[in-house]
Amino acid sequence: MPSEGNSSYLPLPEISDANLSHSFKSQKPSSKKKCPVLCRKGIYHVNRSNLSNTASAISFRDSLDNVQLASIYQPDKKESYFDQCFENISKIGEGSFGEVFKVRSREDGLLYAVKKSKQFFRSESYREERLMEVKRHEEFSGHEHCVTLYMAWEEKDRLYIQMELCQSSLETYVIQQKQIPESQTWSFLLDLLLALKALHDRNLIHLDIKLDNILITEDGVCKLGDFGLVFDLSRKQFPIRIDESNKVLGELLRDGTELVTNIRIANDKREIDRRADEAQLREELLEKLNAESEAAAEKFQDISVKWSELEAVKDPFNMHEGLQEQKERIQELTRQKDDIIKECWKELTKADERYYQDQEKQASDIVCLVERVDHHIEAMKSAYRKHLDLLQQTIDNERAIQLPHSFSSGAFSADTV
Known about the structure:
The protein is α+β, with helices and mostly antiparallel strands. Helix content is about 50%, strand content about 15%.
């Protein structure tokens, strides 16, 4: 086993809270409503159209002849394989990743324990990680001090494991018995050490040994269960953690880019609509001005003709009547010009109002964008810290395992015990 001095470890980056605000908001209190917090999608995404809703047996054994679904299972029914093939008696355990139920098989009438994963398969890598529990459990299913695994299946993005039903966990057993004889304590310790030796002989470390995962059979045999957190010394976990962190941070970066893109698209659409409205109003106004101009030209022509006719009139009465008509025509022409000026002034006022409204809307969008960017930065910082903690934990585990004074796998032999 390599010593600590010969091992090289990557330094962990440090994230400082300084210079990460990116906030351009004014220091004055704003009367605008606060931008709603972005409802982030899930950090992980999976295409469920490619996943089957029917049960499928899972096994890593060389031969799949003995790993088959129950004959009473009918895939065409709406009920799941679990509901069709088992009678759920009670829930006997619950952990971070799954729930354990005491069931009776409808096929052979025997009692079993079925572990059902809580979370869906968020991605293919997450699915493979969960299926590793089946692989590890199958390797030790035949060991007399490990819980027997009968079969496993996946259905509707969940993992199910059918196992041997034990009497109780060690914690429950200790609470019920209150006092355990020393001989039985040594017997339990021997059973547990033999189970650990089986794992250590294959270069595996069980990282979730606790009273809930140590089970007692009706014959009083101590067995080790729950192989979901088994560390393979031949497989470094640090690159895996780095890859998981990169995936999470990549999702966050894509979400941030989507935020900026959505606001940019909204602004572009609003600008296109504004220009289209202005073009339509300009066209309507030009048509109206052209019509008014033609009508004004005709009236002006009539007025000019009337002036020529009045010059030839000698009768004062007829001249006065002609002047009155000319005056009315000139007033009508003046009113028409005034209406055109008012119409143009009204359009200019509307254009000014639209300009100020667009300015306010753009300012509001900028404030909203800044607040969402700040929120997104906080989410990224939190994700960085979380995964840095995971990386640090992984490194600490590797260092602890590689300490020169740690027990070697040969230390747990049956003769030594």
